[in-house]
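User: I'm writing a short report section on ligand binding and want a predicted complex to refer to. Could you take this sequence and MGD and write out the structure as tokens? A short remark afterwards would be nice.
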Amino acid sequence: MVIACTRDCYDTCIFDDNHKPLTLFPINGFTCYRGNMDIKRNSLNRVHRPLVDGKEVETQIAIDEVVKELKRVSPHEVLHVDYDGNQGLLTWYFPARLWYALHSATTDYSICSAEGHEAISRVYGSSFGETPENFSKYNAFVIWGSDPKTSFIHGWKLMKDKRKVVIDVRVSQTAKESDKLFLIRPSSDAFLAVGVLKVLRDRGYLNQGIDVSWEIIEDETGLRRRDVEEMAEFYLDMKPLTLIGFALGRTFQGGKAISLISTIPSVIGMKGGFFYSNSSYGIDFSYLRGKFNKPSRVVPMAEVSKEVEEGKIKFMFVWNSNPVHSLPGSDKIIEAVNEGRLFLVVHDPFMSETAKVANVVIPAPTYLEKEDVVYSYWHRLLVYNKPILPPKGIDEITLMRDIARRMEITDWSVWEDPWVAVSKATGVNVQQLKEKGIARLQDPPLREARVSIPTLERIPKGTVLVFGSHPSFTNSQFKEILKMEPTAFNNKYQGIGYVKSKWGKIKVRFVKSDDVPEGVIFMFKNQLVDLEGKPVNSIVGPEKGEMAGTPLLNFVNVEVEITHQ
Ligand SMILES: Nc1nc2c(c(=O)[nH]1)N[C@H]1C(S)=C(S)[C@@H](COP(=O)(O)OP(=O)(O)OC[C@H]3O[C@@H](n4cnc5c(=O)[nH]c(N)nc54)[C@H](O)[C@@H]3O)O[C@H]1N2
Ligand SMILES: Nc1nc2c(c(=O)[nH]1)N[C@H]1C(S)=C(S)[C@@H](COP(=O)(O)OP(=O)(O)OC[C@H]3O[C@@H](n4cnc5c(=O)[nH]c(N)nc54)[C@H](O)[C@@H]3O)O[C@H]1N2
Ligand code: SF4
Ligand SMILES: [Mo]
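Assistant: Sure. The structure tokens for the complex follow:
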């Protein structure tokens, strides 16, 4: 028997029934701090009983409350917010069928990787890149807007002892253990990529006009022409694999940057040569979610809080996500609940920041407590999870069907056998998967790139707040094991004070660090509650990417005010 970690993570570690990581490639017998602490964490900070207005009630009473409120509003005023708290097909995807059958509003699922999927698909027709097996074939890597030493430990392991060049806006852990860092200004990646392509064009690899001058490239990136030439030469000499980080999709002009970066390997004649996320092939997620039932409308994740404030959303059902922590402008969600303008329901195993303010909280089992099928966005192994601990709470599908029954939803998709749905969506024989525990998904055929150089916009000037992963958390998860103060790393200020944007201000501790250049403030994306308990994302606006609407989380223009040392 095996069990896969369901956290939003490249690696999707697979464990045996003693919770030891398998020696199978690419898990290779090791895991992270969170993997090691999972069993301990499982009993901490749990939602033990359903809560209505903070009071413990029987499950049926909580569901009655949900249904009563749901009947009061129109489908277009109902929004389901679900993301990757658990990467199980039966936890995240299949339960969405209720909300599609109800024709409620849906989000655009853009918060994390959507911008890059779209950007690479515009070049290659798909965003699928190199598999872990192929990582091993490369002798050099370009790590662009990514911190794999922190966020992708098994990928990082495969890069060990290889030549590594990093492009980042601060000195990350990855940069410290690589051969070279090109430290650039926030969101200037598209200009750097165009610079590299300009060198390649001058050397005969590309036959296209590029009308961006060296003065502009140097001004925007903060690099010299010679640095850009050095990078192009690294590409030509080493034919590296480019790891394109999700962080880039959350920058200003991030979609264009990712399209351009993904083009470079093909311009120098490589087949493949990049990796972003491999979730785009082999699983029909739309079918699993029941997207054939049309939602009444799609709300960009960047604008959820804005729509809540405008009164367009009156009922929000959250599972597998912690929007008060993770969505832009999320202080508006808290305000609306407190003022009775929004009815908020949260289904979560843990008392998340969103659960703390919700009208109704329903406890969910963790991945250690339920059956599921788990995939990875890096490797191609599909895993059948069998519970290894007794269940707590009510699982997603049972909850969805309980609500469906009371809403008199007869749509077949809600009542389809989930195992039949999994087999249709993956092409995998479920019986065999259950027996063997692991199946391998097919890889898609290689695709040719369509190279085109877009017109770039100059980057608005100012100090920029950017975010990155912390090794001991996954997004908002794991705070029960490790506590950390919200900290703004920067090269000037020390003490307590405010980070201010045009959307508001947050109180944090400032820590001076040589790893962060002037013009940049760096925070871990796992500490998104300020010193006064307010969401850090209060200062993030509704601006979004032009290709897939990903919020510009890594391009928040800010000012600093120190109040005391
Ligand atoms: N330990 C751990 N692992 C995780 C996660 C976690 O929370 N903790 N989260 C998972 C999830 S949800 C995701 S999306 C991935 C994210 O993993 P990554 O793609 O690695 O993204 P981040 O960690 O957000 O940021 C990576 C780097 O991008 C840099 N950066 C920020 N802005 C810019 C820019 O404009 N240009 C360039 N070139 N660099 C920039 C940051 O300084 C940071 O060092 O990791 C996953 N893995
Ligand atoms: N400012 C800023 N904001 C960001 C980012 C940033 O870099 N900066 N990063 C963004 C990124 S990359 C991402 S991916 C998003 C992530 O944003 P979210 O989707 O909000 O991710 P988490 O914070 O991990 O919240 C997941 C929730 O799911 C719950 N959960 C876990 N397992 C289960 C389960 O089996 N069932 C149910 N019902 N619930 C479960 C967890 O307890 C947790 O409360 O945040 C984004 N927000
Ligand atoms: S969080 Fe990532 S590295 Fe850690 S156990 Fe889970 S899949 Fe493995
Ligand atoms: Mo993410």
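A remark for your report: The first strand starts at residue 2 and ends at 4. The mean pLDDT is 97.
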